[in-house]
Amino acid sequence: MKEDVTNIIAPLMVRPITRWPFFTFLGGAMFCLLASSACHLLSCHSERISYIVRRLDYTGIATLISTSFYPPVYYSFICDPFFCRLYLGFITILGVAAILFSFLAGFHQPKFRTLRASLFFGMGMSSIAPIIHKLILFWHQPEALHTTFYEVLMGILYGIGAFVYAARIPERWMPGKFDIAGHSHQLFHILVVAGAYTHYRAGLVYLEWRDQHGC
Ligand SMILES: [Zn+2]
């Protein structure tokens, strides 16, 4: 709440830092959840619609992961355009590659379940490089530690989500008992929303940090 208020007041008091990386992340998160909702709502319509919306779902996940890099990378390396472009370029190319990969005919077969989870997990884990780089540069600034705390928490939530999805927990232990509620896919979606919200909180800390300290 305090960060929300500060972010509303800060632009009025100081020269605000650009908001586009933060809005890119919010747009990516909204697109992911919208694509996912469309997938769950429409995939039972017909084989043709299911084919389209399942690809849309994976496009949404890749978009969420890629756009999640924009606030931390942009605001951490705002004074270092080389690393800013390097990290953002890397994750953007990786995101586009993951989307193109998901359009391959065999990608959605059940036997590739673990590969699909690993692909997104790997994309997320590549964020370790810019986060460690940020800590090396700004270890003495409380905002760097504060945002890293949120990022580690987000990583744990997404990591558990990917594991639950790949390992089919808990229905693997009691098949048929979780078809209505408590299914791994439902737990996975709850964890994704929790992870995105944690990242939103980190984004607010980045905005406050750069609004007050600039480059
Ligand atoms: Zn889903």
Describe the structure.
This protein has one domain. It has 9 helices and no strands. The chain has helices spanning 2-13, 20-42, 47-68, 70-76, 81-102, 113-125, 128-138, 142-167, 184-213. It has 215 residues and is mostly helical. Helix 1 runs parallel beside helix 9 (184-213), helix 4 runs antiparallel to helix 5 (81-102) and helix 4 (70-76) packs parallel to helix 9 (184-213). 77% of the residues lie in helices and 0% in strands. The structure holds zinc ion (ZN).
Provide tags for this entry.
215 residues; mainly alpha; 9 helices; elongated; binds zinc ion
Euclidean distance between termini CA atoms: 25 Å
Q: What is the count of DSSP helices, taking H or I runs of 4+ residues?
A: 9
Total DSSP E strands: 0
The chain-level mean pLDDT equals 90
Radius of gyration: 19 Å
* SSE run: HHHHHHHHH
Helix and strand content put the structural class at mainly alpha
Oligomeric state of shown chains? single chain
Low-confidence stretches: none
How much helical structure, as a percent, in the residues? over 70%
Q: Any idea what the shape is?
A: elongated
| Bound compounds | zinc ion
How many domain regions? 1
Proportion of residues in extended strands: under 5%
Main pleated-sheet profile: none
Question: What's the helix and strand layout?
Answer:
Blueprint: H1 2-13, H2 20-42, H3 47-68, H4 70-76, H5 81-102, H6 113-125, H7 128-138, H8 142-167, H9 184-213
Zinc ion (ZN) is lined by residues 36, 40, 185, 189.
